[in-house]
Amino acid sequence: MEKAKRFQVSLKVIWGSSIALAIMASIPKLFDADSTPGDLIINSSITLLFSLFIWYYNIYSLPKFSSQRTNKSLFNWRLLLSVVMGILLMVILVIAHQELFQVSKMDAPIMFELRGVLINLIVYMFLHLLFQNYQTQQMGVELERTKALNLGAQYELLKQQVNPHFLFNSLNTLKSMVDMQDPQSSDFILKLSDFYRFTLESRKLDLISLKEELQILDSYVYLLKARFEDGFDVVKEIDSKQYDCAIPPFSLQLLVENCIKHNVVSLDKPLQIKLYTENDFLVIENPIQLKRGTLSTGVGLNNINQRFQHLVHKEIEIDKTETLFKVKIPLIYDYHNN
Fold it and tell me: What are the transmembrane regions (predicted)?
């Protein structure tokens, strides 16, 4: 997994702000008739060195706390420690400059201390806000990464979803056909083989053409009709111009399976499922003839919806009346096989 981006502050920000503060600290000296170039250099150098120290001290103290929950308050014990350290440093810098330059007349030490505290507060609060923004961004990145990984894992499971009950029922149907010496047994075996060959090939793909998906559906329907005979039928009214569109593999198989799962399928009450295009949607329509005691959990439709959300950021549409149930899945016009 990609490592989190380390918190950094640009050198241009650090040095640029420090130089700017040094220049600003020397401006009052320009209007002082008694000031000399040496006074300007001393004021500037003290402010520059102090600002650089405050920047780097606060920056390198952040990793110590970055693994812990950051206090939302700007003012806490870390600020107090930074101010105390700044006051001590300013004392050291003033004394060092007095000894180094042998200056007999300098600004009162209290003026340097006040300047130091002000600089410390400005740098600390600015850096604290930058770090808070960095942590918020990292949390957002981690959240998106976790969401993507979770969706990816769910999608891989959905792609590999082939109902084991269907295989069990198909094998039982095949056994019955063989026992009865049904001449269609050979065709049934070939269609079953084709269906699972399609399954193995298509599970590696995120999207396939509608034409290929309909071929998979044809094999699936043939196997179902061997079991339900005339109690089940699929009517396709799809414009051939739409065959180059794409959908996630096994979407139609799962939707047809969902129809059979929840509705009565019998010779007395045949179930007819219609497939047709409407605008940029493929519509799967069936009459509502619910089985007794069947409670829909919506898991199947939710799984299909998640696949479309993950791949193309679109959702399926469901239209239900008292007599008809329609599921509309978006057709994808621009795609590349993965």
Answer: 9-28, 40-58, 79-98, 110-131
Is residue 287 within 8 A of residue 271, CB to CB? The reply is: yes
**DSSP secondary-structure letter at 104?**
S
Query: Residue 325: what pLDDT?
Result: 93
d(CA 168, CA 260): 16
- What residues contact residue 324 under an 8 Å CB cut-off, 6+ apart? 285, 286, 287, 288
Specify the 3-state DSSP secondary structure of 99. Answer: helix
Q: Distance between CA atoms of 119 and 183, rounded to whole angstroms? A: 93
Q: What is the pLDDT of residue 192?
A: 82
Task: Locate 316 and state its tokens.
Answer: 């399926």
Structure tokens at 155: 């999608």
C-alpha to C-alpha distance for 280 and 286, rounded to whole angstroms: 20
Q: Is 270 helix (H, G, I), strand (E, B) or coil?
A: coil
In the predicted model, residues of the chain with pLDDT beneath 50 are: 1-2, 65-72, 74, 104, 337-338
Give exposure, 3-38, as e/b (b: 16+ Cβ within 10 Å).
eeeebebeeeebeebbeebbeebbeebeeeeebeee
Please check whether residues 201 and 258 belong to one and the same domain.
yes
- Find out whether 242 and 331 touch, Cβ atoms under 8 Å: yes
Q: What are phi and psi of 272, to 5 degrees?
A: -110, 120
Paired sense of beta strands 271-278 and 317-320, if any:
unpaired
Residue 38 located in a structural domain: yes
**Neighbour count for residue 333 (Cβ, 10 Å):** 10
Same domain, 307 and 202: yes
Longest Cα pair distance anywhere in the chain, in angstroms? 119
With CA atoms as reference, report the closest residue to 331 among 199, 235, 241, 236.
241
- Pair 232, 220: CB distance under 8 Å: no
Q: Are residues 231 and 101 in the same domain?
A: no
Would you state the pLDDT for residue 190?
Answer: 85
The two tokens of residue 12 are 């241009």
Task: Kindly state whether residues 24 and 108 are assigned to the same domain.
Answer: yes
